[in-house]
């Protein structure tokens, strides 16, 4: 199969993620959209790796996964504590840098 | 690989700072003693540096830096962890290490927490840790022979200084309750902004220097000579460096942060500013401006000399007009820094030796005067000259030490500052007679502001508010006596110091390719 | 023998250190320590003197090199001493008179709780003054020069609780500093032109230097001398300096420190010899001061201030003589020594009078004291006869020679200078007779002393007076005070004759200063006779005014000149208006400028930055999604730009 198709898919996923980040208010959804964008990047990296025949892209993809996992941990914790304090998960409610 | 003495001299106070900060809240006194011991141990290491230092050393390939250490650090940008000292650096390291124990002792009670605060509040630990941190950074900037490394410490010392100025001030009393000074945060921010602005311009010049030279190492330059620079490039880079140092030094008209900072800070911190931190500025002029950009330095000399001259006269005149003891000392310092800068840029051996001695002597004399002033202020809770009078009658020892500090400030012969001031004047005079003569007016003005200060605070009828003032306590005497002894010793016998400084000055003079003007009669023979 | 020279300085310095650092436990013996160390200095001086007399005239100079003081590339300052006949004369005068005044002070300061400190300062002064005259280079001389200034500052302001004393001390130091500036510029000139400032090389090099340069150095040295020796235009401090305790006035402000300017000029004789213009300036300064001091001395009612005016005037004579060159150097020093004796004696006498009169200084409240203080009267009287130049006494020999030398200068200058010196002699006789008559003769005006007169502002209402309203009980002072007065009176009587007859003093000093015999246009006998004649006129005038008529207790308003002279010929008013007021305005406006202009520029920049950032702040609304939009927008722009660049 033509690896360029994977790139199209990655671009599509990235766009979906980006518009989700911009449009949706719910913090959880925004968060998941960010994940989507990350994974789109991963897909693109792996595809490029395949295209160029070296392993650099795949290695970076692994790094990204690890970072994403860490980010999930921190991000979810923040969202949970936000929700606890103001009973809402809207990102627009958290416009001040304090609780 | 020998013992890294220079690193140790700086690392000890740095580690001491961390340890002091970590002392639990309840053990305040332990933190003080820890800080004092660390500073004394640092002094010991500085003495070791002095002992190991050989004034007549000539290194391989003309590298005159001694006790060098060199490690790769950020290889991609050619930044190296490179330390080394010449005579000027050694003298200033010794001065710094010498003054810090006195600063700590003098500020023993300055940062005791207020009763009302919670038990986890630890200002004392913070105060002493910050002082040690400043010491570490100042020592490192005297040691660094890598331009970028120097830049890092030059900037980093602003952070602890900012907190020292903004966080701790004189305790003003009003209606029996302590009130914080509103001017203090203004002074701290002003200090930071001025110095940051200078530092950022210097950063641009540092990067520019890298582009031209391809490395940051002064030792490489000492061995291989300066990189080729276009004249205009050299001048721009020189200005970038000089601006930062002139802010720090401080040179007129970039001086206005100093009176605010010194006025609002506690006396020990004020000593830290003017006697230690500001010296990095004048030191860097000698080391970086003159050695890296000799041609540009000569090009800028006339303007700088005039600015220095304005500093001398202007600072002295403003000191006469002050009503606040600490601001008066601050303006006096501006005048003295004018002398130092004038000596550096007069480009004569006498001027530069004098300027280096001046840095050391001014450090000691200002410390003596300012710390005694601090003791005085802490007794009465006011910085205004008009609130004092007749102190001599109630506290003769305090008044006596204050007088000696004042006399040192006005450069009385027999005390250390005279030697350096006269050398600077002579060194300037042989090349620029008019500037030398005008600068001599500074000595009359110095007598005016110090004696007016002494007269208004110490003599005359005893004011009721000061009538119960206690004389100096043992701790305070321990602070003042060695400083005064040193002032007298270096005034009578400055040879140990000049022996260290002379070869370094010779080196600088040959770097800028300047020769002393020859006396006419001898030349005729 | 050479190694003893340093001890001359070290002994009193040690005394100062011990007394000032020793604390209260030395209070009981402090004055003895001080006196013994001062006397030790004198004894060492005497030993060296005896040794010197044993040698031939050309081999008398001794040097001692202690250590290298400021060794810097091309700049060599040593701590080294040089003892020749000129220095020796000063050493004996300083340590001798100094020791006597230490003894006197034991009695005079008996009731002062800070007596130990007083002796510490006196010792400090001796050390600095000896350093000044023993130094072998100008920089070390400068140390002594400022050192005596410091000691003088401390001693004038000894009674610091009196604001007037503190102000006077500060004024003395400041005016002296102006003179010191001249000295330091002179040293810088020497260094720039000769590459050294040691006496030997500098004075040798004068032969190869142009006259213009020597004139410049000479004028700067003259400025220094004016400051230290209270010569016009820097004379204003000396009158105020009388706020200090009387022994201080006797030692520092009459016998020794104020003559340092004369020493400096004589020591630098080679420079002045090569610079006639500078010499002329010196003689003019001397002549003007001579009259200035004498006129001021006539108008003062404060006994010490009258004597201070007289000191100024007598030093004017010395400076005048020093400015005459080789024909005058020896006589300048000779008058300096005899003046040291009789003026110190006069001041000690004044102190003794004040001691017996509850520290009253206004002569209008004295009168008829000769019966109550016989010793003081006799010693003071001998000093008086010496200063007015009564034939046979010290002042007669030394002053007469100066007047003769002034005429010998030749030409119109010679006539003018000689005439001024003669006129000065007449005025001297007048004001000294006035002092004598008002103090020791006439009716006893102190019996019904009224409250201090408001018409005379220069008289302090004696803050240290013990019982201000009690009628004084004049009495003779204790023997510790009278013995020094008697010794000094001996000097006042016989020193002149000893020095003058057979030209002893000339032979003694000639190897150092050189000497040339002047040839006055009139014979020496004529000069002598006219000197005696003007003296008699002066005494007669004073007697007519103060001896035959009663002296009013409240000073009469007086003529314009009298009123001006009471205010030091308006010098202080001039200083006040021009320097003090002007300086105040200058500093105040500078403080304002610093605050508004220099700081304002920077703060203005800060304010405009603040305004700009206030606007930029609106962009930072805190909504995460709007940040995200700008981030994506920015990324899109970057990518577009990259692609575009690649396409191009």
TrEMBL record, chain A:
Membrane spanning stretches: 6-23, 28-48, 60-83
Molecular-function annotations in GO: NADH dehydrogenase (quinone) (non-electrogenic) activity; quinone binding
Gene Ontology biological-process annotations: ATP synthesis coupled electron transport
Keyword terms: Cell membrane, Membrane, NAD, Quinone, Translocase, Transmembrane, Transmembrane helix, Transport
Reaction(s) catalysed by this chain's protein: a quinone + NADH + 5 H(+)(in) = a quinol + NAD(+) + 4 H(+)(out)
Entry EC no(s): 7.1.1.-
InterPro entries: NADH_UbQ_OxRdtase_chain4L/K, NUOK/Mnh_C1-like
Family assignment from sequence similarity: Belongs to the complex I subunit 4L family.
HAMAP family tied to this protein: NDH1_NuoK
Role summary: NDH-1 shuttles electrons from NADH, via FMN and iron-sulfur (Fe-S) centers, to quinones in the respiratory chain. The immediate electron acceptor for the enzyme in this species is believed to be a menaquinone. Couples the redox reaction to proton translocation (for every two electrons transferred, four hydrogen ions are translocated across the cytoplasmic membrane), and thus conserves the redox energy in a proton gradient.
Protein name, per record: NADH-quinone oxidoreductase subunit K
Organism the protein comes from: Streptomyces flaveus
Source species taxonomy: Bacteria, Bacillati, Actinomycetota, Actinomycetes, Kitasatosporales
TrEMBL record, chain B:
Residues in the signal sequence: 1-19
Record field: transmembrane: 31-51, 88-108, 128-154, 191-216, 236-257, 269-293, 299-321, 328-347, 359-377, 397-420, 432-454, 474-493
InterPro entries hit by this protein: NADH_Q_OxRdtase_chainM/4, NADH_UbQ_OxRdtase, ND/Mrp_TM
Pfam families registered for this protein in UniProt: Proton_antipo_M
Superkingdom of this protein's organism: Bacteria
NADH:quinone oxidoreductase/Mrp antiporter transmembrane domain: residues covered: 144-445
Entry's localization field: Endomembrane system; Membrane
Mode of membrane association: Multi-pass membrane protein
Family: Belongs to the complex I subunit 4 family.
NCBIfam families per UniProt: NDH_I_M, PRK05846.1-4
The protein, known as: NADH-quinone oxidoreductase subunit M
From TrEMBL, chain C:
Pfam family, one: Proton_antipo_N
Keyword Ribosomal protein: no
Domain named NADH:quinone oxidoreductase/Mrp antiporter transmembrane: residues: 135-419
Cellular component terms per the entry's GO annotation: endomembrane system; membrane
Subcellular location: Endomembrane system; Membrane
Region annotation Disordered: where it falls in the sequence: 449-478
Transmembrane segments: 31-54, 89-106, 118-135, 181-202, 214-234, 246-266, 278-299, 372-394, 414-432, 483-502, 522-544, 627-645
Biased composition range(s): Basic and acidic residues: 463-476
The name this protein goes by in its record: NADH-quinone oxidoreductase subunit L
Native source species: Streptomyces flaveus
Encoding gene per record: nuoL
């Amino acid at each position: 199969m033509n690896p360029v198709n994977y790139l199209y898919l990655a671009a599509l996923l990235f766009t979906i993620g980006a518009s989700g980040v911009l449009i949706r208010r719910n913090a959880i959804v925004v968060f998941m959209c960010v994940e989507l964008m990350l994974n789109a990047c991963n897909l693109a990296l792996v595809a490029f790796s395949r295209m160029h025949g070296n392993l650099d892209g795949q290695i970076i993809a692994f790094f990204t996964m690890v970072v994403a996992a860490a980010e999930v941990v921190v991000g979810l914790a923040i969202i949970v504590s936000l929700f606890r304090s103001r009973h809402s998960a809207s990102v627009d409610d958290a416009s001040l840098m304090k609780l | 690989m020998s013992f890294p003495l220079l690193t140790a001299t700086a690392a000890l106070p740095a580690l001491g700072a961390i340890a002091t900060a970590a002392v639990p809240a309840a053990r305040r006194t332990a933190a003080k003693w820890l800080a004092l011991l660390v500073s004394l141990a640092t002094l010991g290491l500085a003495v070791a540096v002095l002992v190991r230092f050989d004034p007549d050393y000539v290194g391989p390939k003309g590298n005159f830096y001694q006790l060098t250490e060199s490690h790769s650090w950020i290889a991609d940008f050619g930044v190296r962890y490179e330390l080394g000292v010449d005579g000027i650096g050694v003298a200033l390291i010794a001065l710094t290490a010498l003054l810090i124990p006195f600063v700590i002792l003098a500020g023993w009670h300055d940062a005791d927490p207020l009763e009302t605060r919670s038990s986890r509040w630890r200002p004392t630990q913070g105060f002493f840790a910050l002082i040690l941190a400043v010491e570490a950074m100042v020592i490192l900037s005297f040691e660094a022979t890598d331009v970028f490394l120097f830049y890092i410490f030059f900037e980093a010392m602003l952070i602890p200084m900012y907190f020292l100025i903004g966080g701790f001030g004189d305790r003003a009393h009003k209606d029996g309750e302590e009130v914080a000074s509103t001017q203090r945060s203004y002074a701290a921010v002003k200090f930071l902004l001025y110095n940051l602005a200078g530092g950022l311009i210097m950063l641009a010049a540092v990067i520019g220097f890298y582009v031209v030279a391809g490395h940051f190492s002064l030792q490489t330059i000492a061995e291989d000579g300066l990189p080729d620079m276009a004249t205009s490039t050299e001048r721009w880079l020189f200005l970038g460096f000089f601006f930062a140092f002139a802010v720090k030094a401080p040179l007129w008209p970039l001086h206005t942060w100093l009176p605010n900072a010194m006025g609002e800070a506690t006396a020990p911190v004020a000593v830290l500013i003017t006697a230690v931190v500001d010296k990095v500025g004048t030191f860097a002029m000698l080391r970086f401006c003159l050695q890296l950009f000799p041609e540009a330095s000569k090009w800028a000399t006339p303007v700088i000399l005039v600015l220095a001259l304005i500093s001398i006269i202007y600072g002295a005149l403003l000191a006469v007009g002050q009503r606040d003891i600490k601001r008066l000392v601050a303006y006096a310092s501006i005048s003295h820094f004018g002398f130092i800068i004038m000596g550096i840029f007069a480009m004569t051996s006498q001027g530069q030796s004098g300027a280096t001695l001046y840095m050391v002597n001014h450090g000691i004399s200002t410390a003596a005067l300012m710390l005694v002033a601090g003791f005085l202020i802490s007794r009465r809770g006011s910085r205004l000259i008009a609130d004092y009078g007749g102190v001599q009658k109630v506290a003769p020892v305090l008044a006596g030490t204050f007088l000696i500090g004042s006399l040192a400030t006005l450069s009385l012969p027999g005390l250390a500052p005279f030697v350096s001031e006269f050398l600077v004047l002579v060194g300037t005079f042989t090349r620029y007679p008019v500037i030398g003569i005008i600068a001599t007016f500074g000595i009359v003005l110095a007598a005016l502001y110090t004696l007016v200060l002494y007269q208004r605070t110490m003599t005359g009828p005893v004011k009721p508010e000061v009538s119960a003032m206690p004389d100096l306590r043992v701790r305070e005497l321990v602070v003042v006596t060695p400083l005064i002894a040193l002032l007298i010793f270096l005034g009578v016998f400055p040879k140990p110091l000049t022996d260290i400084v002379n070869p370094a000055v010779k080196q600088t003079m040959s770097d800028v390719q300047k020769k002393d003007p020859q006396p006419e009669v001898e030349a005729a023979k | 023998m050479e190694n003893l020279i340093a001890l001359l300085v070290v002994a009193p310095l040690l005394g100062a250190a011990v007394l000032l650092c020793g604390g209260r436990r030395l209070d009981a013996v402090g004055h003895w320590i001080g006196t013994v160390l001062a006397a030790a200095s004198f004894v060492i001086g005497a030993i060296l003197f005896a040794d010197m007399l044993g040698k031939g005239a050309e081999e008398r100079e001794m040097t001692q090199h202690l250590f290298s003081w400021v060794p810097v590339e091309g700049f060599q300052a040593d701590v080294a001493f040089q003892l020749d006949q000129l220095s020796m004369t000063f050493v004996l005068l300083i340590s001798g008179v100094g020791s006597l005044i230490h003894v006197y002070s034991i009695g005079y300061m008996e009731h002062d709780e800070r007596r130990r400190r007083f002796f510490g300062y006196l010792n400090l002064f001796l050390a600095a003054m000896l350093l000044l005259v023993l130094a072998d280079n100008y920089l070390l001389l400068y140390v002594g020069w400022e050192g005596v200034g410091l000691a003088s500052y401390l001693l004038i302001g000894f009674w610091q609780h009196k604001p007037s004393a503190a102000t006077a001390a500060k004024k003395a130091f400041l005016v002296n500093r102006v003179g010191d500036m001249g000295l330091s510029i002179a040293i810088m000139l020497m260094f720039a032109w000769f590459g050294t400032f040691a006496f030997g090389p500098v004075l040798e090099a004068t032969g190869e230097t142009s006259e213009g340069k020597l004139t410049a150095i000479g004028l700067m040295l003259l400025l220094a001398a004016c400051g230290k020796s209270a010569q016009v235009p820097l004379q204003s401090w000396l009158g105020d300096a009388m706020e200090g305790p009387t022994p201080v006035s006797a030692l520092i402000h009459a016998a020794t420190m104020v003559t340092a300017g004369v020493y400096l000029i004589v020591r630098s004789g080679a420079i002045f010899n090569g610079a006639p213009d500078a010499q002329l300036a010196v003689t003019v300064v001397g002549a003007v001061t001579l009259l200035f001091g004498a006129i001021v001395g006539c108008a003062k009612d404060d006994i010490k201030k009258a004597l201070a005016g007289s000191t100024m005037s007598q030093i004017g004579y010395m400076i005048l003589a020093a400015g005459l060159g080789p024909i005058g150097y020896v006589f300048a020093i000779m008058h300096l020594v005899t003046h040291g004796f009789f003026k110190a004696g006069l001041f000690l006498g004044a102190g003794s009078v004040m001691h017996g009169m509850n520290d009253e200084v206004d002569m209008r409240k004295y009168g008829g004291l000769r019966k109550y203080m016989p010793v003081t009267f006799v010693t003071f009287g001998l000093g008086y006869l010496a200063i007015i130049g009564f034939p046979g006494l010290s002042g007669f020999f030394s002053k007469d020679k100066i007047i003769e030398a002034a005429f010998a200068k030749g030409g119109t200058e010679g006539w003018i200078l000689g005439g001024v010196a003669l006129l000065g002699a007449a005025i001297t006789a007048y004001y000294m007779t006035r002092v004598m008559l008002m103090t020791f003769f006439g009716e006893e005006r102190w019996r019904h002393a009224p409250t201090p007169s408001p018409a005379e502002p220069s008289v302090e209402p004696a803050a240290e007076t013990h019982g201000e309203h009690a009628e004084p009980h004049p009495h003779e002072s204790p023997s510790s005070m009278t013995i020094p007065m008697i010794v000094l009176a001996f000097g006042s009587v016989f020193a002149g004759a000893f020095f003058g007859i057979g030209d002893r003093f000339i032979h003694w000093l000639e190897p150092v200063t050189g000497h040339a015999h002047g040839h006055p246009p009139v014979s020496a006998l004529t000069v002598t006779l006219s000197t005696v004649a003007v003296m008699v006129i002066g005494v007669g005038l004073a007697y007519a005014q103060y001896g035959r008529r009663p002296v009013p207790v409240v000073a009469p308003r007086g003529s314009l000149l009298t009123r001006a002279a009471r205010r030091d010929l308006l010098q202080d008013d001039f200083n006040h208006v021009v320097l003090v007021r002007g300086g105040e305005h200058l500093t105040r406006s500078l403080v304002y400028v610093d605050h508004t202009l220099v700081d304002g520029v920077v703060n203005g920049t800060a304010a405009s930055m603040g305004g700009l950032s206030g606007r930029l702040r609106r962009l930072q609304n805190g909504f995460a999604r709007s940040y995200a939009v700008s981030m994506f927008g920015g990324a899109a722009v970057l990518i577009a730009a990259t692609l575009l660049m690649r396409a191009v």
